[in-house]
Amino acid sequence: MKKIFNLMLILVVLIMGTVMARDLIVKKSIENIVSVTTGMKMDISQLKVSVPKTFVSIKGMTVLNPDNFKDRVMLDIPGIYIDYELWPLLKKRVHLHELRINLKEFTLVKNQEGKTNLAFIKNLKEKNKKSSGQKKKSSKPEIEIDTLSLKIGRVIYKDYSGGGEPIISEYRVNIDSTYKNVKDIGEIIQIITAKALMNTAIGRLTDFDQLKAMPVNTMEQGKNLLKNTAGDLKNLITAPFK
After folding, report:
1. In CA terms, which of 3, 12, 152, 222 is 20 to 30 Å from 36?
2. Structurally, how many domains does the chain consist of?
3. HEC string of 152-200?
């Protein structure tokens, strides 16, 4: 009886360890994807991955500004919900039935040198363009999102270029939009940027027009990270059955 109890205890510990490792892998991979595709660091307060119910819940996500900006946070995202399909994931493809993003606050900053945090993303694009090389486009999308639901609360623009205290403009955009058949990580960034800025005066004051053509090349590294994450998850999920 004692041996059975010990065996069950070991099994429970192994399962818990697998679940925790799986969540840590996904959390780290998401942070890496954001870092590669935007060049910015991020924090995640809580992440939960469910395999039987095939969902990922993220709470307390913040995307941080580069170090040469006084304001720490660029994007304040209280919640993200992902409903994914398991079997494509095991084949190193990502198919999301639904992606819900609740963006509470989008802060755009112009520093004392007159550079914006959006321009930082554009500059990263130019650096990655050479390192990406000439790659053939796959006939099949590596990521598919059936439904993207996007909520944006407000946009804040802070201008430090005049020296001293910043000039602050706030826009309550209250956007609640849905998009179908998104097939590129870059599309998500474009959609968020466009929806946040197109109904405000900020688009005329920043580098918004220069960012409309966020390239596929910049996103290739992010896609590769997604493929590696899928492989890691496959190993974790199938390990107990080998």
Report:
1. 152
2. 1
3. EEEEEEEECCCCCCCEEEEEEEEEEEEEEEECCHHHHHHHHHHHHHCCC
Q: Where are the alpha helices (H) located in the chain, listed in sequence order? A: 2-38, 86-90, 117-132, 185-197, 202-205, 216-238
Q: How far apart are CA 223 and CA 123, in angstroms?
A: 20
Provide the percentage of residues in the chain whose pLDDT is more than 70.
55
Which residue range is the domain that position 206 belongs to?
A: 2-132+140-241
**What Å distances lie between residue 90 and 81, 232, 233, 241, CA to CA?**
20, 9, 8, 14
From the list 227, 68, 219, the residue with the least C-alpha distance to 129 is 219
